[in-house]
TrEMBL record, chains A, B, C:
Functional note: Catalyzes the phosphorylation of the hydroxyl group of 4-methyl-5-beta-hydroxyethylthiazole (THZ).
Top-level EC class: transferase
Keywords, ordered alphabetically: ATP-binding, Kinase, Magnesium, Metal-binding, Nucleotide-binding, Thiamine biosynthesis, Transferase
Family: Belongs to the Thz kinase family.
MF terms (GO), sorted A to Z: ATP binding; hydroxyethylthiazole kinase activity; magnesium ion binding
Protein's name according to its UniProt entry: Hydroxyethylthiazole kinase
Cofactor requirements of the protein: Mg(2+)
Pathway: Cofactor biosynthesis; thiamine diphosphate biosynthesis; 4-methyl-5-(2-phosphoethyl)-thiazole from 5-(2-hydroxyethyl)-4-methylthiazole: step 1/1
Keyword NAD applies: no
A single GO BP: thiamine biosynthetic process
Keyword field contains Metal-binding: yes
Length: 263, 263, 263
């Protein structure tokens, strides 16, 4: 992918200021809303079963994140995702800790069957959705990355979705093409919800009308470049998070295109 | 209103350190609690149907915010608001996105019928509660402000409550009098929950024993002046939010009275 | 307790990077997760009745906090705590506002009967769990502290748990021994969730395999020393909170041992 596509994508996002409907977890709801505002989108957190179908059709994109899943929220996610699909509204799924419990595994599989435009997870989560063991501590991480990337490709083909598996290097695939994003910073792993932020940014790019593969790469590159800029000024993880949001807000397309490391 | 009333109000708030009971949304719960602590109040977030009636009578004021409404929380809000009214405890209603779905419209109308001391919303929300179309994109914003101010006056008269409609200029009315607050900063629109923060600050002033119109103006002026001070030091929306809370904490009555732009 | 035990404890925590399962309140969920990441633990927020038993046995420790309690969450807390006890996984209880309502009092008593390794609360909360009146405003705070410390010792003996009662000086007791921690800063009282953060840090030290009394003292001393360091650079409560997390991340064992004021 040509990095200039990223600056075009960012300009489209800021021009559209898309309304992004989030059904997400209570740990990251504030950070997600602020990240969406910072990049130029318009976030809404609406999660009641009674209203998600009526609301989602007003949105440009939907973000579904199972982080602090509860049964009523699970029903709301299903209703919203199904309705989004019927209405042609793109959505992105974040299957947080999908392999940790049966409740999460079943919920993530149920949602994946509703065909999000993009599925974004870490290696363990994508392996779980591919039906493989996510691996515990002690697994060689190089081998784990290779397995997760293969799993991402398999899930992308099987489900007909774009899969983004994030880590030190992010991999995005539609089952055929594979794009890597080499941006980011280790401090991203010391702040909660940065993976969820990546998912929400992908949702914002989907809401701006970008195709799923481009939206996923743009979301990951945007976060990664902003993180690199933020790390320079940070005294630790909390000042890093503040700077990260400030940098998302201040990021311009030329800088994004110049600093993105796509492969 | 004389700006010196604002410094008196702030002194009363800090002297009383009122316990403010919040039933609010998960996006802003942390920010709301920190804003209340910063200004000198004592926040509590208590939302179970089983306990809100027992708790609210211990509080000096109640804040009800429907941002991430769920059905059990809706019942708790109704119980708490009704009980507060019976006990003479003032409360403030924030009808987040009241016009977006039937669930929100009905909840907001149901709560408004319980007569909060103050109703605070943006133009679209106040228009929805007045029974008018909130208007979508493309509506001329000058005309929209005029319509929202007229709707605020109509709702204030019809319901016997003070209505605050916030925007670039805030308007506060009891149906007869109209006070404007001209403070604030555009960065307030790039941080989630600043409207909810305004509502909570109004709750704190109500809890300090101020009459509703004064409490509403004081809450909005306090936030607006602190925002103007915070914007100078901010590198973006997240450092602005940090500075905003620091400034709320450090704000003194003389500065508030000198910088408030009331009309 | 010898302060060098604290540096050993911190080294053990960072070496273990324990998975800490939290069932906590929506006000502090983000801060709790970030504090756990900052100190070197691995947080997870999992709260559905359907999955807490399956999840908790994968964790090294459990943190239960009743701050924004709801009935389904109460059932999940009970299931998780009981299962943790059966599996030998240590857990810590934070009985937020235990004395404020019958719902909280009963929930806290029910959980306490499941025997956490550590109970951490402020004076009012510990008095409520001892069956005494927590005292309202106007109670002499010196006398209140003395009563709370006596109540802590009584609860520790009666329930067979370590009790930490926090305030200007923290007191930690197993019913026989009593250790005081004299670190901290007044700004801790102007940020929401710092008590909850203390509880979570105790959970992290429990997860690293430390005995309950040591874990409680280590958690409180760690937070107190980081707070003292953070206060120097803070312009108010919000920049203090950012600096607090940065300092938790940067804290080294030698500094912790040198600055801890144990008695």
């Amino acid at each position: 992918m040509n990095p200039t596509e990223l600056s075009t994508a960012l300009a489209m996002l800021r021009d559209a200021a898309p309304l992004v409907h989030n059904i997400t977890n209570q740990v990251v709801a504030n950070l997600t809303a602020n990240a969406l505002l910072a990049i130029g989108a318009s976030p809404a957190m609406v999660q009641a079963e009674e209203e998600v179908e009526e609301f989602v059709v007003q949105a440009a994109a939907l973000v579904v994140n199972i982080g602090t899943l509860l049964a009523p929220q699970r029903r709301a996610m299903h209703l919203a995702a199904r309705h989004a699909g019927q209405a042609g509204i793109p959505w992105v799924l974040d299957p947080v800790a999908a392999g940790a419990t049966a409740f999460r595994r079943e919920t993530a599989q149920d949602l994946l069957a509703l065909r999000p435009a993009v599925l974004r997870g870490n290696g363990s989560e994508i392996l779980a959705l591919a039906g493989e063991d996510g691996g515990g501590k002690g697994v060689d991480s190089g081998a784990a990355t290779g397995r997760a990337v293969a799993a991402a490709r398999a899930v992308a083909r099987r489900e007909g979705v774009v899969v983004a598996v994030t880590g030190a290097i992010d991999h995005v695939t539609d089952g055929t093409r594979m794009v890597t994003v080499g941006n980011g910073h280790p401090l991203l792993t010391r702040v909660t919800g940065t993976g969820c932020t990546a998912t929400a940014l992908i949702g914002a790019f989907l809401g701006a009308g970008l195709p799923p593969l481009t939206a996923a790469v743009a979301g990951l590159a945007t976060l990664g470049v902003a993180a690199e800029q933020a790390a320079g000024a940070a005294a630790g993880p909390a000042s890093f998070q503040v700077a990260l949001l400030d940098r998302l807000h201040g990021l311009d397309g030329a800088t994004l295109a110049a600093r993105a490391r796509l492969g």
